[in-house]
Amino acid sequence: MGQVHTLFIDQNIVARVMIGSFLLLGLGATGYGTYALRRGFPVSPQQFQKDLITWHILRPDTSPQILDDIKRCQNYLLSLSIIGGGVIIILMTLGWFIVTLVTPDTSMSAINNGSVLIVSVFVSLGIGMGFGAVFAAWRLRNAARRGVTYADLRQRRISDYRSNAFRWLIAAMIAWTFAVLAFFAPHVESTIPIALFYLVIEVPNTLWGICIVPAAMLLVFILIEFMFSRIVGFSRLLITSDTTLSQQVDDMLRAVVIGTVQYCELLALGQLASLPFYMLSQRLWGSHYWKIGNLPYEGLLAVSLFMPVIMQLLGVGLLLARGRLGGKLSGWPWRAAESRQPDVRV
Fold it and tell me: What is the sign of the dihedral through the CA atoms of 273, 208, 182 and 168?
């Protein structure tokens, strides 16, 4: 009996340590964003110049004042985006902490790797950064109203900044997750465990039961697509007195924010796609469908288990692409600029 009590205490300690770690992450992001808002990001002049060349912004006649305007707007937009992500993570972790206080202790009847908590962190970060960018754009737009303004010549779409291949990738992940659950469900017991952080619940082994995780993935997809619509939809920013350059800088900044939010989405969906392994592996052993030396279709669950790693590798590529995700305006990072721009000191 003492051992069981110790198990419960350890679960609560581990849960709160994880929550505390992510709370520190949110505080750190908020602090870093605040510092960048005041002092600017520590980006090398070479990288800044490379970004401007990639987006065809840097020209022989680009004045230092215009470059300063671009830096100022970039720092403001990205710093508020990071602050927004940090604030939402803080609110999310406080909510999880309250849940651990009011939820009774339960025994661990399933493998739990904290996927649900990690998913909530990435989704909160993506949504928070998106709202932070939209808020920053609204502030910049209001500040420019007393100056020269210009209208959009055409309606922008998410396909201008991101290839539609990402939508197909996400659809394939959701379909794969449902297919794996549906394939193995007949070979396990009448219930399937879902680990909601340290609380494990049993859901009926029915169609709606195996649809819970794919439905959660679909919900994340809808939330992030809504965020993309907000990022794409806010008005053009008058960053400099040159309206053409303002439009190009505006596109660059939107693309960078969209790429970061897309990174968060892929990591969150990768974690959700790994849940079938944790939901089914123990039950497959318990139902004797899996036996020592005979593990039918083990590779299917192995793919699900490594899905977070696959999405992490892809996500790192998105960050390195710096907003060039195959959109009609952004293109792909391996497509070099059409003409080499002159070397200008920034």
Answer: negative
User: How far is 119 from 147, CA to CA, in rounded Å?
Assistant: 43
Please give the span between the terminal C-alpha atoms of the chain, in angstroms, as a whole number: 69
Find out whether 137 and 78 touch, Cβ atoms under 8 Å: no
Q: In Å, how far from its chain's centre is CA 189?
A: 34
At 66-108, the pLDDT tens digits run 888 899 999 999 999 999 999 999 999 999 888 777 766 554 4
203 beta partners: 192
Instruction: Work out the pLDDT band at 282, boundaries 50, 70, 90.
Output: confident
Cα separation, 63 vs 276, in Å, equals: 56
Position 184 pLDDT exceeds 50? yes
| pLDDT tens-digit readout, 141-154 | 777 665 555 556 56
Residue 298 has which token pair?
Answer: 């083990």
Whole-angstrom CA distances from 323 to 54, 162, 259, 315 are 11, 8, 5, 12
Residue 290 φ/ψ, nearest 5 degrees: -100, 135
Show the tokens assigned to 78.
Answer: 């990205």
